[in-house]
Design brief:
The structure is a homodimer. Chain A is mostly helical. Chain A is built from twelve helices and no strands. The longest helix of chain A has about 100 residues. The radius of gyration of chain A is 59 Å and the shape is rod-shaped. At the A-B interface, helix 1, helix 3, helix 4, helix 5 and helix 6 of A face helix 1, helix 3, helix 4, helix 5 and helix 6 of B. Chains A, B: It comes from Stegastes partitus (bicolor damselfish).
């Protein structure tokens, strides 16, 4: 069998040194990485500060513009009659109420964005600054520890080097001691080999040989002792080397697997938590702005829900009583003390009146049927119009879905309302229907006006003919009648408001 | 009894005319009111258009500023190493991820506010314009009807006037006819009164008297007839007057109570409904903007929730493998073919080794107890720090509650974070604790490093002494041992990543 080739001391040392060199290089690299990580953090935190400083400006400008906008229109309305109304009682026409709430909303948005800007500047940015400080400080402290740990590690490696060298030394010595011993043993054998002489022996020769044998034995013993001593030393050195080797590997393992991550954790100490809080402050601000905005919009939505033509009409008529309060009834004015104040039905006029009553009756019947038809048509038309004006075409969510994609915004919006080709046609159609409605409604009014007049006469005749042949000459009855009429007028005027309210929107 | 004083014709006419004059004035007033109402509407709708046009500008400017802001930082980051990483795999350090999402959010806000502006300009304002057109058109049509109705009403009033006059005329006539008749009757009585003569009657006298009696009777009859005729005419006139009076009052009542509100409803036709839709379009846009914004914030919140030191640490170490990958184990290098490669425990060294093993054992016991103490302290300190850095001090809702009142914003914000007098003290306190923690942690590291070294030696000795008196000279065993070590190293390198991940944050 071929004996394996052995590494020379130099090779071993060289290998060891290159291994250590590698490690040292890594240690330097690690320090660099820690520095770099912190640099990146500080840079990120700087960017965040710049970002929020700039955004604070933008929010503040936005807030100012909104404030200006609200102010401009508030000032405009403050002078108006409505506004006096508004100050006096909150009882406004429902569209005007919406308008004021719209302005209030802009104000609220203005205030909230100012608040947002303020929180960025005086809270969020502050936090990022402090996190940046902390990172730098922590890096410094962590690097002190890192430095310490690396020094210890190098110590350990040096120790390994020393014990390895010692092992080499003692091992070589024990090898040389061994070979010297072997050599001594050979010489001894040679001496013994020259043993029994056959012819002519001289006395002095005999003496000389004995003394040299003694010498060789002495030397052999000495070399034996030396060898054992060196052998033991080299065993101990090897043991020490093996133990140190174990310790070294364990230290290296510990450093790379545990200590390094601990070091990184030291740099991180509180970084993520503080960043979390800073960003949550931002989120809290944004979410609160949103909530406030939402509350405002809900208020407007309520006002929009309660846009009501009927109550607005009543408010409108109440605003101008001189124009809309019904006048007093026209009273019968007896002429020159004429004491009869009701229709007389005594002969010969009674026949004529009865005939007239019957004509009125049949005329009314026909008129009512005709007008009922017209009314039906106009009401149907009105319903059509109301369906047209209450079509739910105001949902614009799609624009915002689109706006999340990369598509341009414009294109999407147009879809929602304008580009609906129907829009123009819809309006034309609506106006046509409107036209027709007004025509029908006018017919209906004429009809109903005629009916109301004839009806009044018809009813009066019916009453009086019913009362039949009562004596014309009756002061008391006049008294009664007058008071009766007066009562009607008063109650009519009293009930006016109530009546208005009770009226349906369009008959 | 005293007879009541009768109104003269003139008085009655005067009263009637003033009453009609009043009504006519009201009719004019009503037309004015309708005009005024529409003017107010058109003005309101104009204000709404101006308002939204201006707000659209503000929103667009806001959007542009946000876009610029996002772009500025996006450009900055696009170059960085992180960003390459980002493009490659989405696997970013958690804070960098938050930073990118923050920029995305600004972009989204920018887009959404642009959309908002666009909807204002191309949808909402359009609607208000159309409502304004409609109002004007409807007013025109309604006024036509109003005019018609008012004319009819005036006709009715004129008719009343006429019949009243007729009544007056015929009534006066019948009165005068009556008085003439009475006069004739008186004369007749006078004739009959000159009756029976007592002395000397002449023939021609007798003839003369008879003929005059006849004349008087004839006249009386004529006047009787005239009276009855006029009486009947006046009765009919009064009846006509009473019937027309009834019709008039009914027409007036109808006009004021029904027709007027119908007219106002005609002006309102679709006004409230269209306004409602216009405002709902605005609301829909605002609400959608809000939803989009909210979604964006939620994404950021998730990223903030997943700010994680541990996974960041692993990512960091993986980013620099040359720096953090553990080196190969140091191997035993046999010197000059030394065939023993493990600790020799044969006499005479064994005694010494056993003694050393025992010393290591007891030393380790003490060290471990001491270090455990230090560890406890440092861990406790760490917990304190972690409590400090995770304090929930980021809720800023109060700022927004305040911002709704009239109070200035500044004052309120300061309360939330800065003006907390503790803030400076808190930080000082935190740094002290940090200081102490690092001290303790350093002690702990030193201790544990020593322990790991001694432990390694201890374990090796234990193993070898356990193996006891095995022959030193054993090639096979060496072979086994070496392969064993090699295996360890390989697996260790393989497991590295896993190990790192498994590590707790700070031991």
């Amino acid at each position: 069998m071929s004996t394996p080739r052995f590494k020379k001391d130099k090779e071993i040392i060289a290998e060891y040194e290159s291994q250590v060199k590698e490690i040292r290089a890594q240690l330097v690299e690690q320090q660099k990485c820690l520095d770099q990580q912190t640099e990146m953090r500080v840079q990120l935190l700087q960017d965040l500060q710049d970002f929020f400083r700039k955004k604070a400006e933008i929010e503040m400008e936005y807030s100012r513009n909104l404030e200006k906008l609200a102010e401009r229109f508030m000032a405009k309305t403050r002078s108006t009659k409505d506004h006096q109304q508004y100050k006096k009682d909150q009882n406004l026409l429902s569209p005007v109420n919406c308008w004021y709430l719209l302005l209030n909303q802009v104000r609220r948005e203005s205030k909230d964005h100012a608040t947002l800007s303020d929180i960025y500047l005086n809270n969020v940015i502050m936090r990022f600054m402090q996190i940046s400080e902390d990172s730098t400080r922590l890096l410094k402290k962590s690097k002190e520890i890192a430095f310490q740990l690396q020094e210890d590690l190098m110590k350990v490696l040096n120790e390994l080097y020393t014990v390895m060298k010692t092992y080499h030394m003692y091992h070589s010595e024990s090898i040389s001691a061994e070979s010297k011993l072997k050599e001594a043993e050979k010489q001894e054998e040679k001496q013994i080999g020259r043993g029994d002489p056959v012819f002519s022996i001289r006395m002095e020769d005999k003496y000389q040989r004995r003394s040299s044998v003694k010498k060789i034995e002495k030397m052999k013993e000495k070399r034996q002792a030396k060898y054992s001593e060196n052998k033991l030393k080299s065993i101990k050195a090897r043991n020490e080397y093996l133990l140190t080797l174990e310790a070294t590997n364990s230290s290296v393992f510990k450093y790379y697997i545990h200590d390094l991550s601990d070091l990184i954790d030291c740099c991180d100490l509180g970084y993520h938590a503080s960043l979390n809080r800073a960003l949550r402050t931002y989120l809290s601000a944004e979410y609160n702005l949103e909530t406030s905005r939402h509350e405002g919009l809900d208020i407007i939505e309520n006002a929009v829900d309660s846009l009501d033509p009927r109550s607005d009409r009543q408010r409108f008529m109440e605003m101008y009583p001189t124009a809309f309060c019904p006048p007093a009834k026209f009273e019968f004015q007896p002429h020159m003390g004429d004491e009869v104040c009701h229709v007389s039905v005594q002969p010969p006029v009674n026949g004529e009146l009865i005939l007239r009553f019957q004509q009125l009756q049949s005329r009314l019947a026909t008129l009512k049927i005709e007008n009922e038809e017209i009314k039906k048509t106009s009401e149907a038309t009105l319903t059509t119009i109301q369906d047209m004006v209450t079509i739910e075409d105001y949902d614009v969510s799609e624009c915002f879905h689109h706006s999340r994609s990369t598509e341009s915004v414009k294109s999407t919006v147009s879809e929602t309302y304008l580009s609906k080709p129907s829009i123009a046609k819809r309006r034309a159609n609506q106006q046509e229907t409107e036209q027709f409605y007004f025509m029908k409604f006018r017919e209906f009014l004429e009809g109903s006006n005629l009916i109301s007049k004839l009806q009044a006469k018809h009813d009066l005749l019916k009453r009086t003919l019913g009362e039949g042949h009562r004596a014309d000459y009756m002061t008391t009855s006049r008294g009664r009648r007058n008071s009766h009429t007066r009562h009607q007028v008063d109650s009519l005027r009293r009930l006016w408001g109530a009546v208005l309210l009770a009226l349906p929107v369009l008959h």
